[in-house]
């Protein structure tokens, strides 16, 4: 049984507090959603603003395979704006719970039914595909809910949708509700929110009970605790529900997840299923050993299925099998005795509370393997003066071939000043800094900074790294390390 997918990242997902996508960002996401096989894309809510309508029009002009929808209330003004955007369909949202009808709209159920019927007629008269979504359906009287749906179906609505607007369903109650609503002659969809962390489970239960379409957002973004997570739901159907399938290209899931995260600025929690950075990472020695022998021992799916790669994390819990695999990835081939020593050195470092990075692993491995470079230059002291109205100035005290030297330099910033303080010395002449890259490798304002540089002298180019909480220290240490390597031959 094929399950259709309606993605509402561009509408419900954009309602995440603090998120506002530009028309170009929306278009990029829509392109990717269409490429990976999403059936229906809710491009926005046309009534919202002129900018929103511009975004929707850009998407409808692309000729996507996916059906393009706009959100609309059961009001003519909303529908007219949808028509102006040339969408294929509308997601016509009609509140059906007593709470919403009496307290929000302040009308009677009969008036609500008339509004719904009139809106459906207007949409169909203007050639629109209509999905009628019952807002707060999970807290609605089931008989009234059926009446709303039956009236809409009689007027030609194409699909109906049950919205768990405040996420109060459980897997059991979701199955029970959809079992009462699976007899209609049009497909029924499920739209869940994640207030209790049950959106994916409730969506899967609804599918088992007869839902033939699911609503979701990439990375589960949305108001409050978010919506049904697209990637979790799609992979669960593919791996756990052999009688069901979707049209989604699962290997592209990680790519769209990263695109949405970058565009929205909404951070993906590391332990998030499928797309979190830790989803296919292993540190435990027992787990790493099992994974290397057969990945199924500790992974329910392979990372390649969703466009990911497996990672072995360096830390005190790791064993020698995972460590040996990581060392080989970095170009180190060691014997058993060397492997054990590297493992012990890592555990000593980790027991001090330090995150063990690849930079640390390089240093430890080189020390054990006696890969030592001649160190002619050593940094003794570094002082920086910088401010809003002060020309950045650096003074360095270094030891070159056992000779103590003090020098100073200025620059456009403190890092530039520090490097200039070194470059004016004879030993640094003819050395060009050809590449400079900075990454924060931990979180927070006290993050460890990983500086990677390339330096060149003549036709010889070497790379070096410096890792410090201070970007200036890290940069100077990386630069000096690179020059020492250039001079070592």
User: Alpha-carbon distance between the termini?
Assistant: 66 Å
Structural class by secondary-structure content: alpha/beta
Number of strands: 16
**pLDDT averaged over residues:** 89
Instruction: State which percent range the strand residues make up.
Output: 15-25%
Brief descriptors of the model:
three-stranded antiparallel beta sheet, 3 domains, eight-stranded parallel beta barrel, alpha/beta, single chain, TIM Barrel, 489 residues
List the topology elements.
Blueprint: E1 4-7, H1 23-35, E2 40-45, H2 50-60, E3 67-72, H3 76-84, E4 89-95, H4 98-105, H5 109-125, E5 129-135, H6 142-154, E6 159-164, H7 171-179, E7 188-192, H8 199-208, E8 213-216, H9 230-240, H10 253-264, E9 281-282, H11 285-293, E10 311-312, H12 320-329, H13 336-351, H14 358-368, E11 377-387, E12 390-400, E13 403-410, H15 414-423, E14 432-440, E15 449-457, E16 460-468, H16 471-487
Parallel strand pairs: 1-2, 1-8, 2-3, 3-4, 4-5, 5-6, 6-7, 7-8, 9-10
Antiparallel strand pairs: 11-12, 12-13, 14-15, 15-16
Helix pairs in contact: 1-2, 1-10, 5-6, 7-8, 8-9, 11-12, 13-14, 15-16
């Amino acid at each position: 049984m094929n399950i259709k997918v309606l993605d509402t990242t561009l509408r419900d997902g954009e309602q995440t507090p603090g998120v506002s996508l530009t028309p170009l960002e929306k278009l990029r996401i829509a392109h990717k959603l269409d490429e990976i096989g999403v059936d229906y894309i809710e491009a926005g809510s046309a009534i919202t603003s002129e900018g929103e309508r511009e975004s929707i029009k850009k998407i409808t002009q692309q000729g996507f395979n996916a059906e393009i929808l706009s959100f609309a209330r059961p009001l003519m003004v909303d529908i007219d704006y949808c028509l102006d955007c040339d969408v294929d369909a509308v997601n016509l949202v009609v509140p059906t719970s007593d709470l919403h009808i009496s307290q929000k709209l302040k009308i009677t159920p009969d008036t609500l039914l008339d509004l719904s019927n009139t809106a459906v007629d207007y949409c169909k008269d203007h050639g629109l595909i209509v999905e009628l979504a019952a807002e707060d359906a999970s807290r609605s009287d089931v008989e009234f809910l059926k009446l709303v749906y039956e009236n809409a179906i009689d007027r030609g609505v194409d699909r109906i949708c049950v919205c768990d607007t405040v996420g109060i369903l459980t897997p059991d109650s979701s199955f029970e509700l959809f079992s009462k609503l699976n007899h209609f002659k049009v497909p029924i969809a499920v739209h869940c929110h994640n207030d209790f962390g049950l959106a994916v489970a409730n969506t899967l239960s609804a599918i088992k009970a007869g839902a033939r379409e699911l609503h979701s957002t990439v990375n589960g973004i949305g108001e409050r605790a978010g919506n049904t997570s697209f990637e979790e739901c799609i992979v669960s159907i593919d791996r756990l529900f052999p009688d069901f399938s979707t049209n989604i290209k699962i290997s592209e899931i990680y790519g769209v997840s990263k695109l949405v995260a970058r565009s929205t600025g909404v951070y993906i929690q590391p332990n998030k299923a499928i797309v979190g950075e830790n989803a296919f990472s292993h540190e435990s020695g027992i787990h790493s050993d099992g994974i290397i022998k057969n990945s199924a021992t500790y992974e329910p799916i392979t990372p390649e299925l969703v466009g990911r790669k497996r990672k072995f994390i360096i830390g005190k819990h790791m064993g020698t099998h995972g460590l040996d695999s990581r060392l080989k990835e970095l170009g180190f081939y060691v014997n058993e005795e060397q492997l054990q020593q590297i493992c012990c050195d890592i555990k000593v470092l980790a027991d001090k509370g330090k995150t063990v990075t690849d930079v640390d692993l390089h240093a430890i491995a080189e020390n054990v393997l006696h890969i030592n470079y001649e160190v002619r230059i050593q940094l003794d002291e570094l002082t920086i003066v910088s401010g809003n109205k002060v020309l950045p100035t650096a003074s360095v005290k270094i030891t070159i071939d056992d000779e103590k030297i003090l020098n100073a330099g200025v620059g456009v910033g403190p890092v530039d000043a520090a490097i200039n303080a070194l470059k004016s010395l004879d030993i640094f002449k003819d050395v060009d800094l050809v590449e400079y890259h900075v990454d924060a490798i931990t979180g927070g304002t006290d993050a460890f900074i990983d500086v990677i540089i390339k330096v060149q002298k003549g036709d010889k180019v070497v790379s070096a790294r410096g890792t410090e909480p201070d970007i200036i220290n890290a940069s100077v240490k990386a630069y000096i390390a690179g020059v020492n390597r250039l001079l070592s031959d």
